[in-house]
Amino acid sequence: MSRRSRALLLDGACWAGLSLLVGLLALALVPVALGWRSDVVLSGSMRPAVEPGDVVVSAPVGPGQVRAGRVRAGQVVVVDDPVRPGGSLVHRVAEVRPDGRLVTRGDANEHPDSTPVEPTAVHGRAVVRVPAAGLPALWLHQGAYGPLLLGTAALVLVARRAVRARADRTRRQAPPRRGGSRRPRAHRGGRRAARALPAHPATAGALAVVLLGAAVVAPGEARAAFVATTSSSGNRVATKAAFPSYPQTVLADGPLLHHRLDDAPGTSTAAAAAGPAGSYTGPTDAVVTSDDAITGDAAGTAVLFAGDRYAATDTPVDYAPRTGFTLEAWVRTSTGGSLLRLTDSRTETTGGAAQMWVDPKGQACVLVRQTDAGGATVHQEQCGADAGDPKIFTPGSTAAPAWHHVVATVRQDAPPKPNGSEQDLVVYVDGTEVFDAGLIGTLPAPAAGHWRLGTAPVEHENLAFGEVAEQFTGALDEVAVYARVLAPEEVVEHSQARTRTAAAYRGLVASDAPQLHWRLDDPAPLRVVADAQGAEPGTYGRFPRFALGVRGALEGTAIGNQASSTAVRLRNGSGTVETATITSPLLARSDPVTLEVWFRADGADGGPLVGFSAAATGTSTSRGPTLYVTGAGAVAFTAGDGRTPVQSPTGRDWSDGQWHLATATSSSAGGARLYLDGVQVASGADTAAAGPAQGHWRWAGGDAYAFTPAPAASAFTGSLDEAAVYARVLTAEQVAVRFAADH
Residue 240: which pLDDT band, with cuts at 50, 70 and 90? Predict the structure, then answer.
């Protein structure tokens, strides 16, 4: 092949590559002009169908279209990301529920996402996948500047070659000059060519910048959440925007009725967190026990029922059985009896359209009233009868029965399970399904009735299940009724939410191997700060200005004789030199590094939350990573001397007397990032941490005054809790999960 042929082939390849790139970008971006959207996929749970760096083009879908069935199982949708507020998520629809909510799942994830997607959170239905068109945006997001620079250089070279080849071809095809033929090839170009050539690099560079900028800036960002295939439940948990407490979990799922049974001793009123309140009826008013079902709920109680005592809603509750409903209760008993029953009136014994009880064998049972093909009323009752099914009590547990979570779901014509079994009626104990069955008739039309808790007649006809005690003796807590069927993962979510406490947060911290983790639960009058890892204890300074054992940031759990997780309060005063600080021993400075602390400011002067300093006390001429609150109520972070601080946007005062989680990361690869309450609020290009190679982490004190902007006080006044330092960068997902684990 001649030299000219090779050159022509190379020129053609350059033009073909540019044309392909332009075509891909046009395919990704032109639909935007039609009202569609384009999103760069940033992670890989949709593999192999969608890879990170692909662009997904989606047609807009409104809430009405979702409810009308325009979105079907198997389609890929773009929805609000529950982990990153303001972000998007690309996942496949696994199920469309009767209420219009979508259950989604990543192709590479073993479990579906635990949070059903509301119709209002659906933004589009994926129509086109453009392979690799968003790689520049992905590299920029990941901080992979090497591939980004190499790709830019290659694109400039290809564009320059293609533009120059085009110019040469244009000159060769130009008509001869007047008065003669073209000049011989060796003499063409002359002055005009010399003037034209310098334009080639500029044109090529401009073209490359336009193409690269289009790939980086134009599409949005979406996550095919959770990068790798996983068989653990972590994926399902992390998709929740929060790890709420038990009552928050229930209320988020929209119950018709929710009685927490936290009523004061002696009251005759059964207060309701959702739905109508009720009244207690029986020999005496409510008998309350502080030993409720929810771990760590210091203010929570449960109600003891015995004999003829029960509680019933004061007004009827409407419900539509055919579209599905769920009954839920926490129960502790050693004899059984009726837990929850729908009656026509609050005092009469008629009704029994739906009922849940515990039989003398400790099995959870449910009854549903239906109409058979001939129009007659029939009652279908079902109990878990297998020897291996979980029980509410067993012969060995009657002396000290435990709390158990009981759920029954009912739905007309529910789709069968993959194994073919029917699931119109499903009962769970402690999150485990104990039995399922198909309905024998038709559920009634929309109806209303009074829900009765505790003792009630049982419409018991199936003697195979044994005799039933109508009088309930035991304790009930957190009783709820829903006008829809809770999904299996939601039932598990409720069962597990019972034990969500400070321990959940601390488990997350421990799993990421912090360099130090100070829970700040130290009892007075100790001067030593205990390290949860048993490695790096600290020291309280100026002890009279500390208040130990104040209420902490984390939702409670019992710690020793403490009622809940506690924190430390520092009283430094406005503008004072630091008098109350917490100091680590001499440690090596980490790069990369993550700083993490819960704080609650008492005043408007701000002050340092934590800083790395060569000196253990006083001022220092060498300062490392520092996280602090400015006098304007913003939160700022700097990687150290010579680094430009990043700070939270104006308009939000973080010195508002509330608990907040502040997290800051610094690395030579990713720069500086600042997060507040689990959300990134600022970032900067400054690279590695600066300051002394060795020094002390100083909480509530340090040298933040040396940075701009600066706090109005050199020491922090307020409360600190759960202080941690990591010799690594926590990801945005890990930071979000930290905050969610306490809310």
Answer: very low
